[in-house]
Fold each of these.
Amino acid sequence: MNQLLFLGNLSGTEIIIIALVILLLFGGKKIPELMKGLGKGVKSFKDGLNETEKPDEEKTDEKQKEE
């Protein structure tokens, strides 16, 4: 588990340093707001993907009913 997703070969201390720099840049109160916004963005993206898949399924259901 030396590699975390896209982080590559970063060690634990490097990840902690990056987290501290982010904390200094954005502040403790701003980070939860940023994560909340990121979560909402991911949710709306997934909903958008599901909406594009549903009409395709409805079209195939309509074609099957016509036959």
Amino acid sequence: MITSLHPLGRISLTNRYFTDLVSRAAQSSFGVAGMSPVDTADSLRAMVLNNTDHQGVRVTADETGVTIELHIKVAYGVNVRTSVESIAHHVRSEIERATGLRVARVNVCVDDVISD
């Protein structure tokens, strides 16, 4: 659970909600062809639950803000550097806008290239 304190009270977001929000923001970014598993546990969870919605997203929070790690597949032919910079910027702005939380860092790992 990600919790933030405000003068009027505490705001808590479940990990499921937050990873879903991050995943949707990432997948709506130009050049993203899909999400890749973060690790073996992520891959097994997706197979067992038959649900890949949260695959490829790892979120940690501390006093400096939220750190987001994305594992993505990019479309063949896109400029990877430009696409990754755009994805990081888009995810950061969407999460900060939707939650009011400070995003300290967005790490984008390109794990695969997909041709159409």
Amino acid sequence: MSSTRNKFITGLMTMMIIASFGVLSACGAPQTDEAQQGAEAQAAAYKDGTYEGVGKGLKGDIPVSVTVSDGKITEVKVGENSETPEKAESVIESLPGKIVEANGTEGVDVVEGATMTSQGVIDGVNAALEQAK
């Protein structure tokens, strides 16, 4: 009886291990063609041109200019604003490049210590990109 029980438990454990390999291997599966096409469509979803937008910072409006070429963001410029110079400088140095790299603001984090200024730039870019859709 003990031998039959051991074989049953060993067989059951083997099946569980095999099943878990199947589940785990699916986690690393490449994107489907449909998912890749969706990502590519989003990447080229903008009309070419230069668009203006305005976001609200801590101390006032933050104007931004977004340039789109071949359906992708190629440049983000932050205009004159009333933000604290040190905070605005850290945002202007890092955020535009991250937005260009991401081809939008989704997933772009605000600059630590300059949350309101960062959010103003992000909001301004989003306003500009609404015109480019």
Amino acid sequence: MSEKKGILMVLTGPSGSGKGTMLGEYRKDHDVYFSISNTTRAPRPGEVNGVHYHFISKEDFEERIAQGRMLEYAQYCGNYYGTPRDKEEEQMNLGRSVILEIEVQGAMQVRKNCPEAVLTFIVPPSMAVLRERLIGRGTEDMATVEKRLAKAVDEIRCADRFDYLVINDSLDDAVRDFADIMDACEKGDEARLAALREKTARLKEQVAREFLG
């Protein structure tokens, strides 16, 4: 066991916020353990089982819930998503930070089950940009896009319950901002963390004006 335990970072944001792309860029230069979620939804084009998600059946997922083998889970647009308990604690005890990329409901469960977890919310700069990104995927019809936009507003209402917030307008800037949060948390740098909390408070006000009126 390492003398210094790794942190548990929970990364959340609405569909289309670019959190997956941002995290992918961050991981190129940082050795962290990325927890791969289980889901019952069908793979999107290009997604690989065991790399992007563990794609499992609804019956299998519900059995794991009953056995207490999920750190958190949630239902989103008719499908289950959740984090298996395996390996996360082991990796943190080895001094390696763990990142979970999960939905808002799941993040709130982690906050309850693991109070030491750090929660970061990723948000696009505007509703117009979010709509453009979702349409640009070309994988869903407009009815589904509208459903995701409505869901995004509900999720953004929860942003105030997160420790930190990153606005993903420029990918490079978002990666840098997230890396700063991770580094300050891992080092326990209270001066930097206080400055980041102040910045987050300002960003939350900005996001509330843009998305919630």
